[in-house]
Description:
Helix content is 54%, strand content 20%. The protein has 13 helices and 18 strands. It has a six-stranded antiparallel beta sheet. Strands 2-1-5-4-3 form a five-stranded antiparallel beta sheet, with helices on both faces. Strand 4 (160-170) and strand 5 form a beta hairpin. The protein is elongated. The relative contact order is 0.07.
Amino acid sequence: MTSGAALTRKYRKLSAANLLVVLVMGIVAAWVSGNIAADLVQERLRANARETLFVQAEVLAGLLDKYRLLPAMLARRNDLPDLFTKTPGPETLQSARRIALHVVGLSGAMDISFIYPDGKPLATGIGFFSDRIEPESPLFIAAAQGRLGREMRVLDNGKRAYVFTTGVRDATGFVGVVAVYVSLEQLEASWSLTDNPVLAVDKNHTIVMSNRENLRLRRTDDIEVPRGAGKFVEIVGENTQYLEISRPLPLLGWQLRVLADIAPSMGYRTLWSSLSAVACALIALAVQALIHHQYTIDRRKRLDRATSLRLERMVRDRTRALIETNTTLEHEIEERRAANMQLRQTQNELIQTGKLAALGQMSTALSHEYNQPLSAIKSYANNALTYMDRGREDEARNNIKRISDLTDRMAQISKHLRNFARKPNPTYSTVPVSTVIDDALSVLTSRIHADNAEIVVSAAEPDIWARAGYVRLQQVIVNLVLNALDAMQGQNTSRVTIHTACENGKVMIRVTDTGPGLAPDTLTTVFDPFFTTKEVGKGLGLGLSISYNIIKDFEGQLTAANTPEGGAEFTITLDQGEQSKAAAE
């Protein structure tokens, strides 16, 4: 059988190989997927940039083409050559300005200027700037030669304008130049909705138009830095890389460029690289889980085989031990059963002993109760004989009746004592609580008279029945009343209150005295066997313990507390019974 260490080394090597393979796969997959995603996004960016470039080139060419024919149309006006040939004056100036303003208003041009052959201006339409076209400039030369002159110019007020020029002729020949100024700011307004930078670069590498104000009239060499071996460009002052798409504008001699931000492609590169790495990590985890699962199975099989062998040996050894243990346990069970029976017998004897002890305490008072009736019986008997000798039969008959009453009284006392002294039936049923209390108080009549105590019995409702044993519940009442009388000895006023009530299906019997009450430290130990606060020789400390166990046998509770007035209060709680059921004792 393979050892545990060899098995562990084998699966550790498999885990390391899995980690290495997945690491290499993850790097390759992240690089490939990232590049593919970036290339796809960049190709889409190029397509969008080409579309933008085409649209903006057509828009620019269309707008400029609208103004290209305007100077030629003005030059063909019949009244325009006369303005150049007339003697300069206010009237000529006003006529020229009126024509220029009219055409500016209709065409939307920036301004229109009329220039003499020597380069001096005749008039301008708006005239809020001064721009002199020299006779030696390409604009002027092209117009003088009958061609269309075109050029971008920066005016004195800093504005940029594209200027078209054409010559004005009459029968004598060249008489002047018409110049139409088109605002480049107006043309740039059509680019404002494009997010990517759009540049119009002339042959001198100057940015003549752009939707970025900070790029206008700057050289491309100063603001663009090649990045990525010429693949990308970056604007100085910005940390953004762009794809550059360009298209020439032959008629203008410019080049139109669109810069597409490659940030989305970089984001997709990172996203797909991360997804590939995560996918590889998940594959690694799945493979590692399979490896670990197989390792667990092999290890469990090995452990099961080892455990099976060990258990076989242990079963043989423990079978013999179990046989011996079972024999010992059977002997102990028999001993415990006998001990339990002995314990129950002892408990019953303790209950009977407690009652006999209570009878012993009442013996003195009972002897007084019997002596009085016996003395009266003897006196009545002697008197009856005397009355009979004298023939007074009525008086004799009266004495005999009194003797009979005294005999019944003594028999009643004997009956209660006999019932109280006999051993109770261990079963229980339903008993009338008021009758049990009356019989218990009858047993204690002599003690109550001797102590001159007041007994108050009250009930919240008549005919209260409880689940208990008649004699044993009577014994509990006797013990509680005796304890109350003992606690109140020596007091001028002694009163014991017994109150019964029904609450939520429970019968509550409260025995309250007017004694000094229970000390706080004795409330938790008052039901312990042999616990007593009486002097030596006056109590065994078994009464409350026996009473507690009797009530517990009835599935009830016996609790002790102090009343607000200072006396002690013992509460018996029993299940409520039905009157139709007879007592078992």
